Amino acid sequence: MTSQMPAWAVWTLLGVLLVWSLAAGFRIERRLLTWWVGRTAGGLLRTVVMTAVLHLAIVLGCLVVAVAVVWLRDALGVGTWVPGLAAFVGAAAVTPAIANFLPSHADLGPYRDDLVRAGAAGRQATAIRWTSLPFVMVELACLTGVGCAALAT
Prior knowledge:
It contains five helices and no strands.
């Protein structure tokens, strides 16, 4: 038996997702930024290109989740719990990484000092921050679309 996901369940899952994203994002921040800086080292152009490629991988992951959610919704019926839970699990996989590139400290992108502590030179940190900003907006839009597709009635 399938029934539509009630509003309280949606809000509960959104709250859990928010707490998870922030907590896991803080926990993986240093390792993620160190890994990211290591992959993008080697000149300003390489930093911009590799940052874009890494963010495109996250966007691709969001799109795979979107396709899976739409497929589940079509196969199981509109308004069932399964697409909503699939959207939640898919979002939970990528939101900690996205959270680390959100604008912070009243600035755009990850905090510059965090990137410098992770090993980035000043220009590399700036390039990562500015290249990440539009991709983070696209990633959040993709996740919003996943949620809307999962809960469409």
